[in-house]
Amino acid sequence: MRAPVNKLIRGFSRRGISRFCMPGHKGKRYTGCEKLDVTEVLGVTDAYTESERYATEIFGTAATLYSSEGSTLSIKAMLAILKKQKPEGRLTILAARNAHRAFLYGAAVLDADIIWLYPEEYTHLSACDITPKRLRTALTECDPTPDAVYVTSPDYLGNILDVKGLAEVCHEYSIPLLVDNAHGAYLRFLEPSLHPMDLGADMCADSAHKTLPVLTGGAYLHINKSAEHLVADAREAMTLFASTSPSHLIGASLDRCNSYLSGTYPKRLEKCIALIDKVKSRLQAHGCPTESSEPLKIVLDPRKYLYTGVGFSKILRKFKIEPEMVDDEYAVLMATPDNTLRDYLRLLLAMRYIRKNPELRELPELAPITPSAPARKMSAREAILAPHELISTDDALGRVVGAPTVSFPPCVPILVSGEVIGSAELELLKRYGITSVEVVRE
Q1: What confidence category does residue 364 fall into, taking pLDDT thresholds of 50, 70 and 90?
Q2: pLDDT band at 371 (very low <50, low <70, confident <90, very high)
Q3: What is the C-alpha separation between 1 and 4, in angstroms, rounded?
Q4: Which one of 3.90.1150.150, 3.40.190.10, 3.40.630.10, 1.10.3210.10 gives the CATH number of domain 266-356?
Q5: What is the CATH number that goes with domain 4-261?
Q6: Residue 82, φ and ψ in degrees, nearest 5
Q7: What is the reported pLDDT for 125?
Q8: Residue 77: is its pLDDT beyond 70?
Q9: What is the rounded CA–CA span in Å between residue 439 and residue 403?
Q10: Hey, which CATH number is domain 380-440, 3.90.105.10, 3.30.2310.20, 3.40.50.720, 1.10.3720.10?
Q11: Quick one: pLDDT at residue 424?
């Protein structure tokens, strides 16, 4: 087993060393993991270098670096790498509007300009269907050409963009494509691969913990072989935003995952997806259709069963099911090869109950979301760093957004720092249940 980080940590813990070093628990049991929770012991840097080299081979990249602070760190690092390529002048990113809040904060810290890219038709706050045609049109309209394009794929609802087509358009303009692939680390192990690195993206961030057997916070930053010139700045870019006290428990789980990915995982993934497909077919046969999504998600629409999102989630929890996300439009369930047959049986039973016991006779209409660019009064950086005050959404008309206003999950901003809250934006905040908003103090 090529797991040098695990080997070092476990060897250290077995040797019974007197720990006159951090952390303060000294390896004594409080929650159960302390024995393996170590600090920067001798050899740990070399162990990580070897482990990341192994991960690089597995993902077929020029470099794959670990993050113990989720894709949040990897996303910010991608932007910092670009900034290092352009030390003079401000960085400009053309970004799909469903970007995670981490992207916005990273851009604000680096004082980068964001040009928002909207879909031709909105279906949900989390979705932003950017086609190669739409991207080419947007790039044609940009003057000057932005420094990079940034998209999210898969999104929270399981929609996958045409990353290959988007990358080809970007490269026609000699600019890199960055992908937030937080939900898609496993895509590398499909046949054929649907991972952004294999489809031509220049850099991407994977949240390993979302779909792989990795502790929460474990993530990757990938750099494509075709963008090898970006590797030199990657480590320093990660350091810019990372804690100097990373969790070696998370690092060890990323390290241990390498052997799993290079071993039995592809076969287990194939069997898992086949099982999920059978479950979806069974749901369909019982009048419970699922929405189109990437393979490891089961996406349902509560409204099709005359349920509100709150009511739908209550029934799921009654059957001991914890969903990833539920609102009045979608219920998102994320599965992996570590889900059991019992898990799927509970879902089938819950959906049969829901189908036979509607919550409501009818549901109120949801107004369509219209793609529009809110007026901007300040840059994101200026608004984020300005003094804020928290006010009721009812009193927010005409105010400038301070902190990005997100629904959680999926942490996609409804409004971005520096934008003005107009009447359309006010309705959107209310639609997603936002009752208060941080605005720039007047």
Answers
A1: confident
A2: low
A3: 9
A4: 3.90.1150.150
A5: 3.40.640.10
A6: -65, -40
A7: 80
A8: yes
A9: 7
A10: 3.90.105.10
A11: 84
Q: pLDDT (tens digit, 9 = 90+) per residue, 298-316?
A: 999 999 999 999 999 999 9
| Mean pLDDT estimate for the chain | 93
C-alpha 82/C-alpha 80 separation (Å) is 5
One-letter-per-residue 3-state SS of the chain: CCCHHHHHHHHHHHCCCCCCCCCCCCCCCCCCCHHHCCCCCCCHHHHHHHHHHHHHHHHCCCEEEEECCHHHHHHHHHHHHHHHHCCCCCCEEEEECCCCHHHHHHHHHCCCEEEEECCCCCCCCCCCCCCHHHHHHHHHHCCCCCCEEEEECCCCCCCCCCHHHHHHHHHHCCCCEEEECCCCHHHHHCCCCCCHHHCCCCEEEECHHHHCCCCCCCEEEEECHHHHHHHHHHHHHHHHHCCCCCCHHHHHHHHHHHHHHCCCHHHHHHHHHHHHHHHHHHHHHCCCCCCCCCCCEEEECHHHHCCCHHHHHHHHHHCCCCCCEECCCCEEEECCCCCCHHHHHHHHHHHHHHHHCCCCCCCCCCCCCCCCCCCECCCHHHHHHCCEEEEEHHHCCCCEECCCEEECCCCEEEECCCEECCHHHHHHHHHCCCCEEEEECC
Residue 340 sits at φ, ψ, to 5 deg, of -105, 165
Q: What pLDDT, on the 0 to 100 scale, is given for residue 40?
A: 81
- How many degrees, rounded to 5, is the angle at CA 259 between CA 253 and CA 264? 115
pLDDT at residue 233, rounded to an integer: 96
Q: Which amino acid is at 220?
A: Y
At 409 the pLDDT is: 67
Tokens 């609102």 sit on residue = 327
First CA to last CA distance, the chain: 60
User: 150 forms bridges with which residues in the sheet?
Assistant: 95, 178
Asked if 96 and 138 touch (Cβ cutoff 8 Å), the reply is no
Q: How far is residue 184's CA from residue 196's CA, in Å, rounded to a whole number?
A: 9
Encoded amino acid at 56, one letter: T
Share above pLDDT 70 across residues of the chain, in percent, rounded to a whole number: 98
At position 146, the amino acid (one-letter code) is P
